Amino acid sequence: KGKRLISLLILLIMMVGMITIAVFPATAAEDRINDARNSVGAVLIYFEDAEKSYLPSNETVFSLGSCFFVGDERENPEYAITNYHVVSTYYENGSGKVVNATIGDEKRKGRLKIRVYFDTVSSNDFIEAYPVEVDDKYDLALLRLEYPTDKRKALPLMSPDDSLVGKKVYVLGFPG
Question: Mind listing the pLDDT tens digit of every residue in the chain (176 residues)?
Fold first, then answer.
């Protein structure tokens, strides 16, 4: 009888454990990953016509990539980091100054602009951004948002050290 009772208790503990895992699957690492998803966005470089009002379209979008927001975790982020290759066309085509360009078959006058999107790039949920610093060697670009946003959180960053060797690495893009 005693062995049967112990077996029943072990079975009961295992069932409770499995139910707990099924109902509460998030671990601390998964929680951090889900929080990090609220720290990513999309960067879009597009040509804004000086004479006509065009929404970014297949013909006027020059570049698209992911970004993540940085800054003090207690404040709304005002900066985002992306890759230099995402914003390189911005520099190659006037750095936001009015230029004459051929878009499709038309000659147009306008400028390249940078938008950071919080939702899909077909939405109107975006903010203008401006490059602060770029490093083509390390393929990095720091963008300053037009104003701080409450739509995303700053991603907590840390300095690497030897304790991180062999740790798991997670990669997020947009959409997270």
Answer: 555 655 555 555 555 444 444 444 556 667 777 777 788 899 988 888 877 666 666 667 788 888 989 888 889 999 999 999 999 988 888 888 888 777 777 787 888 889 999 877 777 889 999 999 998 899 999 999 999 999 998 887 777 788 878 877 777 776 54
Query: pTM, whole model, 2 decimals?
Result: 0.74
Q: Are 157 and 70 in contact (CB under 8 A)?
A: yes
Dihedral sign computed on CA atoms, order 156, 154, 40, 82: negative
Q: Would you say 141 and 68 are in contact if contact means Cβ atoms under 8 Å apart?
A: no
Q: H/E/C letters for each residue in 29-90? A: HHHHHHHHHCCEEEEEEEEEECCCCCCCCCCCEEEEEEEEEECCCCCCCCEEEECHHHHHHH
CA distance 157 to 107: 44
Burial class of residue 93 (count of CB atoms within 10 Å of its CB; 0-12, 13-18, 19+): middle
